[in-house]
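anyone else get weird line breaks when pasting these?? whatever heres mine. first is seq + tokens for prot A
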Amino acid sequence: MIRGLLAVACIALPLASMAQTVPEPVDYRMDHYRAPVPATLEGGTVVGPEEAHMLWQAREAAFIDVLPQPPKPANLPKGTIWRDKPRHSIPGAIWLPNVGYGAIADVTVDYFRAGLEKVTRGDLAHPVVIFCLEDCWMSWNAAKRALEWGYTSVYWFPEGTDGWQLWGYPLEKVKPEDGQPQTN
């Protein structure tokens, strides 16, 4: 029995480590946004749930949630009630939906820049923690973009609200930050 378990462990451990090895791309991820992410972000600091929680408790870093928000479907039958799916995020975080795509429109760039400006008060060295869900490239893209714009204390939290919740940390319902570009 023990030999069997050891044999399974010897096979499973290398497979698990291979599954975690995702190379950091040179440019933004342009598709398949819900997939394993790299363990690194050049120029940024990668944090797990415990480190993110310590930053949150210290109240010195701004938290930015970049989970996309699905648009209201076009051509809904008259009288159809549309309700956005609620987003539960890290308390105090601002939600800037749709800023993590690989290519974003100028209005979305402006929206993201305005959100960063607001939470950092224009200080490029002010710490920001950028997150989404686990295995979501949106946060990696958004953190990379913030670094390219000159922000110097960018923390990327790849486990996002999934990892946060797994550790039992609190979540609260949030709404998108004002000024969100309309897709319809």
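and prot B, same format (seq, then tokens)
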Amino acid sequence: MTKNTNIRISLPIVCFVWQIAMIILFGVFIRYNEESDTHWIEHKRKNNISSHIENDFYYRYASFQDVHVMIFVGFGFLMTFLKRYSFGGVGFNFLIAAFGIQWALLMQGWFHHLDHEDWKIKIGIENLINADFCVAGCLIAYGACLGKVSPVQLMILTLFGITLFAVEEYIILELLHVKDAGGSMVIHTFGAYYGLTISWILYRPRLSQIKNLQASVYHSDVFAMIGTLFLWMFWPSFNSAIADHGDGQHRAVINTYLALAASVLSTFAISSLSKKYGKLDMVHIQNATLAGGVAMGTAAEFMIMPYGSLIVGFCTGIISTFGYMFLTPFMERTLKIQDTCGIHNLHAMPGVIGGVVGAISAAAASETVYGSEGLINTFDFKDANRTVNMQGAYQAAGLCVALAFGIVGGALVGGILKLPIWGDPADINCFDDDVYWELPEDEDENIPASIHSNINHVRNMQPEVYRSNL
């Protein structure tokens, strides 16, 4: 079946109208907070603040930059593994992230930071970090739909995804008082099941006809590995960016750092065991090596102990790698879920594991390990009058909320995206940048046939013959 993929009118309309709407809404609602406003001097004097260093900017900006790099560079390049969809992977990642951070500042602001005296949202550096977190959930969902949807569909996915995320985040963090600093539940579990459900609704039965375009080539895997390394290096900042100043933030970095390191070794081990002659699969290395960071998100601030972080990372790396080997083919063949990037193995399963680890760790917390004040501060028991067992139960409830929002929200949004008006490609045109991008000509196409023949002849020479001709 042929489809009209001409988005010359629809994409500009969406971009222009939605950006103008952002300008108007920002003009009505968004203002600087007290630490980014010129009245900071008066605030500093009034609160006996002795130095500008105590401005939250100096605590948070380094983490913000790390998270920002993860969103635009890490996620973007991780999606460039397909042989003919690198432009779409990194380019559409750029588009939906740039729109998403604006909408997230508004949605999260209405739920978390609205000043009821003047009905304004006061934003600072922490709001920018949280907006990036919000966008991360939509980029994870994009991974399940990579190469199969139009940019207009991606903008709609992001609009509804940010909205659902803000509501889900408010319920989990504000109403249930769940601790989830690195977002194993709020970001990864929600984003993954949101994307997987959309992919299930948008199932394409004839993708098997273009299996060749769903593969990678040498250079595309190298570019994707760049994304992996950026994500791997900066994940400790992601999990600690909004943690409490001091020991909580410090502990989150240590726990994530160790979990990531352990997941690398277990991933390499299982990948080697799974292949003939022990050869490694780059798909496993690009993805499962990050699973420890996802699984450590909820318990990042907890006293899980360094060896506990290593155990979490080690086990999650194994589970994630097995997921790529067995679950991804099973899901496509039996459940009709076509998960392009394997987000079920990198985000969904590790996110659920992270939520379970967080619930168990919270329920097992004690004054002996945390100290009386440390226990109260770590779990914010001043704001929620509860015991550690109750906190563990609420942590588990938070995981259920994330799953429910992801699955139900994905089903609703998938139904909207299934309408035949968004310029999505036909099955046989998926995973190809040529549908939505002006592409440069391949170098070999500009080489005269005679020279092309000589080049191939040289390439096919035996090494000793080739050297003798130099």
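btw re prot B: Residues 306-335 form the longest helix (30 residues). The beta strands are 30-32, 114-115, 120-123.
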